[in-house]
Amino acid sequence: MTDHHHHGPGHDHNHGHDHGQMDDDAFAEMIDLDAEVLHEYLTGLFGWLHERSGGRTRRILDVGSGSGTGTLGLAGRFPEAEITAVDLSAPMLHRVRDKARALGVADRIHTRQADLDAGWPTLEPVDLVWASASLHHLADPDRVLTDILGTLRPGGLFAVVELASFPYFLPADLGLGRPGLEERCHALAGRDVPLLGADWGPRLRKAGFTVEAERRFDIALTPPLPEATGRYAQAVLSRLRSGLDDRLDPDDRATLDTLLSGDGMLSRTDLTVRTTRTVWLAVRP
Ligand SMILES: C[S@@+](CC[C@H](N)C(=O)[O-])C[C@H]1O[C@@H](n2cnc3c(N)ncnc32)[C@H](O)[C@@H]1O
Question: What per-residue string of b and e applies to 267-277 under the rule 16 or more CB within 10 Å gives b?
Answer without folding.
Answer: ebeebbbebeb
